[in-house]
Amino acid sequence: MSNPTIERALAAASETKGFISGSGCRADVPQIFQQYFPGVTALIVADDNTFRVAGQDVYERLQAAKIPTEQPFIFPGTPVLHSEYRHIEALRERLKPLANVIPIAVGSGTINDMVKRTVYELDRRYMVVATAASVDGYSSFGAPVVQGGFKKTMECPAPLVIVADIEILRNAPADMTAAGYADLMSKITAGADWIIADALGITPIRPDIWEMIQPPLRGWVTAPEKLAAGDDEAFSMLFEGLSMTGFAMQAMRDSRPASGSEHLFSHIWDMQDHRDASGSNVSHGFQVGIGMLGVTALMETVFRRDIRALNIDARCQQWPSWEAREAEIRQAFAGMPIVDRVLIESRMKYLEASDLRARLHLVAGIWDELGQRVTAQIFPYPILRQKLQVAGCPFAPDQIRLTREQMKQTCLMAQMIRNRYTILDLAYELGWLEECANEIASSSRYFS
C-alpha cells in the first residue's frame, strides 16, 4: 500500500529511493534486492543477535529465490557491539575483493552505521533490513563512529533501500523502542531551536523541510501507550517518523531538522563517557530524551522572564572578550582532547560587543512573539515527562545517573561545543544561561 507522505519524502531525498514497510514484508527482500541491485551477489551483515532475529530468515529467503549469496558476515553479539572504526575496517577487507557484492545490513543503528560507512569507502550502495525502531539514522546521511577513542560523524550516504517489517520491530527489546520514541520526540525541541534561529535571521526555516517533520510530528508521538501494548500501527508510525527525519536531513544536507540543543547535551555525555548505574552506556535515544527535558525546562524558564528588565548597555559592557571566553572554554574542557575543536566552533559564533548589542535589540523587539512561537512548539514539561514515562523512557536525570549539578554543568558546556544557534546561545547572550540553569536545578517543578 502506497504512503503519499513517504513518497513525497523519497522524491526530496537525495540518496534513498526505496522504502518498504509492513507486517511480514521481509518476505519481499529477494524481490526488492533484485529490483534495486540486479545481477549482483548479496552479503548479509548482522551480529549474532540480529542474525537470529531476522538475518537467518532473510538469508534463507535469498537462497530460496536463487539469488547469489556470500556467507553472512556476523559480528559478535556480546559484549554490546559499538560502531567502531576497527569493525568497519574488518568488513571493508571482507568486501574489498568481492567487487560484485552488495551488503544487506540486518540490524539497527550500529550495524546500519558500520555498513553505511564501509560501502562509502568502497564506492558502493547497500540496503538495510531494520530490526528495531530505535534511531533516525537508518535514513540519514553520515554515521557516528568511534575512531581513536573519539566519536565523530563520518561522511557516507544513506541506504538505497530501507525495509521495515513491523513484526520484527514489534518484537524488538522494549528499551530500544523506547529509545526510538525519545529520539523522535526530540524533534519537538529541535524545532523550537530552529524557530529561534530563524527569528534572529541566523538559520532560516526551509518550509519544505519543516513540513516534512513538524506538522505530522505530534501524530507520530501521540500515543506512547500503544507502543507499550505492541500495536502495529503505533510501530509503523514510529518508524515512519524516524525515517522522515532522516529523509529531511538528506534533502537539506544538514542535521538541523532533527537535532537541536537536546543533542548537544547528549554529545557532552558521550565526550564524558557517561554511564548509568550498571556501568553501561546510555543509549542515544535515552540521552536526548533527558536532554530534551533539560532544554524544555530552559525554554520555559527563559521565556517566563521579562525582557524589559534586561539592561542591554550593561550586558554589552560585561560581555567577555574572545580571550576571556577562550579561557573559560579551556577550563570547562580541561584534559579533554576535544577542546581545540570546541574552541573553533565557539569562535565561529562569537560576537563582538557591537554585534551583540544589535542582536539584543532585535531580541527585545520580537520577544513576546518569539516566546509565543516557542511555547506553542514545545510540550509543557509535565506532559513531556509523562509521555516519556508511558513510553518506557527515563523521565528524570537521576534515572541515567545524572545529578542536578551535572545537568547544570552540561547546560553550560553544551552551549560551547557547536556553531548551531539554539536556546543555549540565546540564554548565554542575554546573560541568563547560568542563572536559569541554577533556577532549574533548584526548582521542584523540574527536579522532584
From TrEMBL:
Pfam families: Fe-ADH_2 (PF13685). One of its GO terms (cellular component) is cytosol. GO terms for molecular function: metal ion binding; oxidoreductase activity, acting on CH-OH group of donors. The keyword Lipid metabolism applies. Keywords: Cytoplasm, Lipid biosynthesis, Lipid metabolism, Metal-binding, NAD, NADP, Oxidoreductase, Phospholipid biosynthesis, Phospholipid metabolism. GO terms for biological process: phospholipid biosynthetic process. PANTHER family: GLYCEROL DEHYDROGENASE, GLYCEROL DEHYDROGENASE 1. This is Glycerol-1-phosphate dehydrogenase (NAD(P)(+)).
